[in-house]
Amino acid sequence: MQEFEDFNLILETNIPERGNSGVYLRGIYEIQVSDSYGRELDPHNFGALYSRITPSVNAEKPAGEPESESPVIVLEEISHES
Predict the structure, then answer these.
(1) How many CA atoms are closer than 13 Å to the CA of 3, on its beta-carbon side?
(2) For residue 29, what pLDDT is reported?
(3) Where are the domains of the chain?
(4) pLDDT higher than 70, residue 82
(5) Does pLDDT of 77 surpass 60?
């Protein structure tokens, strides 16, 4: 296993209709990857830090359209750009 300290991650996704997944970071955080287009903001939407941080805007695209997001990991701090 290779360990990293601070890093930038670019996620390129194409989520199917009703798709639901995530990317685990450092065994603590999950970046939500789901078909949440058109739903009210909550901490389970695309790009959320699952159950912890709600996205500030509905920036996701409809299911089937490619999109990207860039969570930035610095020590134990996370910032996010989509």
Answers:
(1) 4
(2) 84
(3) 7-81
(4) no
(5) no
